[in-house]
């Protein structure tokens, strides 16, 4: 899916810059991992985002879904969606959803956009690109966001997510749990 960005580094650009939103391959997992680490290192409070390992990212790309925002060979953003089924990793487990319903939930596990490309709605656009690739049985999406990460929280709410609760997750990190019905 081709999208057009109207801002680069927060400044308007004319003509708009083209990016391709497409499913990442396992061979691209190192680029996803590198972008995660680059963006996290530049955050004012890196604790707002709990990073993943290259091994886990490779498994998610291979077994779940990762949409990348590509400008040529440069990865400018990504969204990882996990289909956890009845695993305890399913965010539905933390929202009092009956275990029999967990297989109908997906986790919007992480969304990263490089600072150069922010302000273009890429998180929302990547989610829109991912939705047609979901298994038919998925009816809800769960997500977590740090209460201090106002940019990601705003994007999630603008994408139709609602805050369900606030709790400690990921080894003691304060998080909102969000849900979206498809």
TrEMBL record:
Molecular function GO terms recorded: acyltransferase activity, transferring groups other than amino-acyl groups
Highest taxon of the lineage: Bacteria
Lineage: Bacteria, Bacillati, Bacillota, Clostridia, Eubacteriales
Protein name: GNAT family N-acetyltransferase
Gene3D superfamilies in the record: 3.40.630.30
InterPro entries associated with the record: Acyl_CoA_acyltransferase (IPR016181), GNAT_dom (IPR000182)
Limits of the N-acetyltransferase domain: 19-182
